[in-house]
Amino acid sequence: MSVAPGWRTGAALLVIGLCAFTIWRATTLLRYGLAELRADAASAPEALRPFLGDVTVGARARTRLLALSGREDSSQRLVALQDLLVLTPLASGAWLDLARARFSTREPAERISGALLMSQLTGRNEGRLMAGRAVFALPLWPMLPGGVRKGVISDLVGGWGEIADPQRIALRTALSVARDETRESVRAGLLAAGRPGAPARQGLRVKSGASQP
Description:
By secondary structure, this protein is an all-alpha fold. It has two domains: 36-123, Serine Threonine Protein Phosphatase 5, Tetratricopeptide repeat (Alpha Horseshoe), CATH 1.25.40; 124-213. 70% of the residues lie in helices and 0% in strands. The termini are far apart.
């Protein structure tokens, strides 16, 4: 069966158009990546402004510009992160940042937990990110649902080596004044992790019963 010349021409034009779009997008990503790499607090407004309205990298540019400005507020960051995640839903670090922003703007616990869960699902084994999630989420333990708590335990186990000493001390202090049920729940989770959970369990000094100094 022969194909009409018009169909062949249309198909060829479609392929050309798709290739052109791919090249344009790749070029935009490359240009933005170089601009972002070179940008600092002083040069960011001029360097990133051309990308703010771009469909491909605009949300990322706005988020980066806010972070470098040093004068962002939580509500602005929240909007920028939500825009970014529409375009990059697998950005596990951005989901953690969104959880932090939602906490800062006092959004409901379920929305904070939802963003944290998405970070856990999309960045399950990233060491530094696991550490960041553990530091942020452990003090929020009482408000977290069971599934997110399991993720926090995994983050403590897998990210413990990436947690700096001052942060470990802060976590240990937070647990020392937490309710008994919180300490026991964390302790049980780390015990269930077996030997890999021992460093975090020992570092946090989680024990049953009365608060520890």
